[in-house]
Structures are given as C-alpha cells and as structure tokens.
Design goal:
This protein has helices at 3-9, 28-37, 64-77, 102-106, 133-143, 148-165, 177-184, 192-207, 219-222, 232-237, 258-265, and strands at 13-14, 42-45, 83-86, 89-91, 113-115, 118-120, 126-128, 170-171, 211-215, 242-245. The chain is an alpha/beta fold. The structure holds zinc ion (ZN) (2 copies). One zinc ion binds at residues 16, 18, 89, 247.
Length: 269
C-alpha cells in the first residue's frame, strides 16, 4: 500500500519516528510495541539519514544493514495487526545530497521522507538550524552574521530545491525554521515575503504529488504544529494530501499531538 492510500484511508498511522539508530531515546522494539498498543495500523521508522558532514544526530551509513534487519524482524513480529515500514528522514543538503541521490534511490526502503535541517550560510558552510533556540541564536549570530531573513529564505530555498530534485514521497515539517526564527522575530510569519515562500512550497509539493506532513512533535510543549495551523487553509485550498506525524523520539510520545491535530483538521473538511 502506498502512503497516499494509507493517509486517505485511516488515522491510525505514523510515518515519521526516531529510535536508537539516530537521536531517538528508545529502541525500535520499544517504539514498535508502544505504537502497537496505541492502535497504530501503520508505523514507519525514519532515522535521520546518513550525511557526508559531521553530525551526531544522524545515523551512520555503516549501521544501515543492521537497521534494515531490525525493520524486517519487527515487520514480521507485528504483521498480525500493524504494518511496519523501513524508511529514512533524508536530509537535503544541496544538489550533492538528498532523497534524489543514488544511494537513497537504491536503498531497499518503503518510502522516502525528505526534510531540511541544515542551512548553508553565506560562505556555503552547512549549519544545523534545527534543535534548541539557544543553539540556533548562537549560530545566527556567529554563522549567519545575524541575518535572520537570509536564514529563513535559504531554508525555504533548500526545501524548494529538494522538491525540484525529487525522489521523496513525503515532505517533513516544511516550515520548521519558523520555530526558531519566530523566537528571534515574533512577527516574521506575518511578512508578505514569508507567506509567499510558504505558497511556493505548497504549490510545488502539490504539483509534484508529494504528501505534506503535519508534524505534531512540538505541540505538547509549544502548542505549534509544522506547518503552522495558520497555513492549513492554504493546504486544503491547494488540494494537498496530508499526513499527521508525531516525529516521536520516545516510546511515550508515539501519538503525541495526534488527536489535537486531527480535531483541528476536521474543521477544514
Ligand atoms: Zn526533522
Ligand atoms: Zn524527525
């Protein structure tokens, strides 16, 4: 079953999660059991993909076989009630690395989730803009010359380039940069230039047939989804296919924010 059919037929799925293979806190076995107990019919593992830059959050290429073997084992173990998918949250870094490259196209996984976490600065140095605000504000000052608009525009440019290069089935948290950027400038999402970047991403994703994720990971702590709720009307108007994902890093959070997202989504349908 492809992911469009899954998200169109049930709410009991999650296509984005992390485990001990990257920066998740629990084992694949523990997460799968928690997902099963939460009534999930479809569950995907999406470790942060290997990247050719230094990053402690990303899985090592040398562990890929071990990861895929554990996916196969859990697929069989839960096949009576839950489909387990092997996937990757593939970092788009530029033309040279993303869901479109041969390595990921040839990998025996069930679908590809593409996300942007790294943003190239004015010198082309890739900087991880995900994670805590304290770290982000240090990078903004020292890495990007305090040019917040540059970071935000470059982030969206990376998202658009990833969609242009293709090879992904699911677009992860497409406005994630807004979490940190809005803490630097609370007005940033009200800017016309910002909104037009969001429009570009939505139009590109819809025209290329990519499923757009609504990421619920931060909802419990920050009351915000990625993409932000303010853009959901645009998603519906554009006819986007949406997937609600917890991006869980802990067994206790496999369905965190899921019910809240679906309650809000029902207002649009
Ligand atoms: Zn991510
Ligand atoms: Zn993730």
């Amino acid at each position: 079953m492809n992911i469009v059919d899954i998200v169109s037929s049930t709410e009991n799925y999650n296509l984005h999660s992390h485990t001990q293979f990257c920066d998740g806190r629990d084992s694949m076995e523990e997460i799968a059991l928690a997902a099963r107990n939460a009534g999930m019919e479809y569950w995907a593992f999406t470790p942060h993909s290997p990247v050719p830059v230094e990053s402690s959050c990303n899985m090592r290429m040398s562990r890929m076989d071990e990861y895929l073997a554990e996916c196969s084992r859990l697929k069989s173990l839960h096949s009576d009630v839950m489909h387990v998918f092997a996937s990757q949250e593939i970092d788009y870094l530029g033309d040279f690395w993303g869901p479109h490259v041969d390595y990921f196209q040839k990998l025996p996984i069930d679908f590809r989730l593409g996300s942007v976490h790294f943003v190239p600065n004015q010198d082309g140095v890739l900087i991880d803009c995900d994670g805590r605000f304290e770290r982000f504000s240090g990078y903004l000052k020292d890495g990007f010359g305090n040019d917040l608009r540059y970071v935000v525009e470059k982030y969206f440019e990376q998202v658009l380039n990833m969609l242009e290069r293709g090879g992904l089935d699911l677009l992860g948290h497409f406005d994630k940069i807004a979490g940190n950027a809005s803490m630097s400038d609370p007005d940033i999402e009200n800017q016309e230039w910002y909104e037009s970047l969001v429009d570009d991403v939505i139009n590109h994703a819809v025209s290329s047939g990519v499923v757009i994720e609504i990421n619920t990971k931060a909802f419990a702590d920050k009351s915000r989804f990625y993409p932000a709720e303010r853009w959901w009307g645009k998603l519906f108007d554009a006819g986007a296919v949406l997937a609600v994902d917890s991006d869980a890093h802990y067994a206790g959070k496999v369905v965190s924010g899921r019910m809240e997202a679906y309650d809000r989504l029902r207002k649009f349908s």
